[in-house]
Amino acid sequence: MSPQDKYQWTDTQQKAFDQMKAVMAHTVELAFPTYGDPFHIYTDASGYQLGAVITQYGRPLAFWSKKCNESQRKHPANGLELLSILLLLREYRTMRLGQELHIHTDHLNLTYGPFNNIQMMRWRLEIEEFGPTSRVKPTLSWTLCRVCLVYWAPTWGRVKLLPKWAQLKWTMRCYSL
Predict the structure, then answer these.
(1) Which of 4, 7, 148, 160 has a CA-to-CA distance to 115 between 20 and 30 Å?
(2) 29 backbone dihedrals φ, ψ, rounded to 5°
(3) Phi/psi class of residue 142: alpha, beta or left (left: φ > 0; alpha: ψ in -120 to 50)?
(4) pLDDT by residue (tens digit) across 16-62?
């Protein structure tokens, strides 16, 4: 569309706008944690944003996201994934200590051997304090926590694999302030 063309706001656009407002106004119902039962943490990171979801029995307990600062953006992809796990566990420390944890991420390399970076080794040791039973379980590259980063459009076909609470009909971005 060129600057000379005038945009036409029709009933179709108004209907789509109203539907999008309704979806955005709908809140996700968070479940109350059942202590003694395992918690599942899904994390993901991009170069600019970290995100995670804590679930139990497929129901969300908490959503978390954080914008990366300049120094965090310099970390490699596996460092950002590890950082998202660590910051989430720090944020919900009192809820997670002593509980069975299963951490799901799309970075399989976090399960192998020592890191070359001392800072990442310290992060890993701090994560071990929480005693995750499945430290890192590889999943698809579009884990649930991307709900914190980007809501997927249903036309991509992959949304059907997400639980009902994550099946949103519109693409929208959530930014942490």
Answers:
(1) 148
(2) -80, 120
(3) beta
(4) 988 888 877 776 778 899 998 999 988 888 888 999 999 998 888 99
At residue 41, what is the residue type?
I
Q: For the segment 133-157, what is each residue's pLDDT rounded down to a tens digit?
A: 665 555 544 444 454 554 433 433 4
162 lies in some domain: yes
What is the span of the domain harbouring residue 163? 39-173
Q: What is the DSSP letter of 146?
A: H
**Are 171 and 151 in contact, with CB atoms under 8 Å apart?**
yes
Contact between 151 and 172 (Cβ < 8 Å): yes
Residue 61: phi, psi to the nearest 5?
Answer: -100, -35
Count of structural domains within the chain: 1
Q: Is position 56 within any domain?
A: yes
Q: Give the CATH number, domain containing residue 136.
A: 3.30.420.10
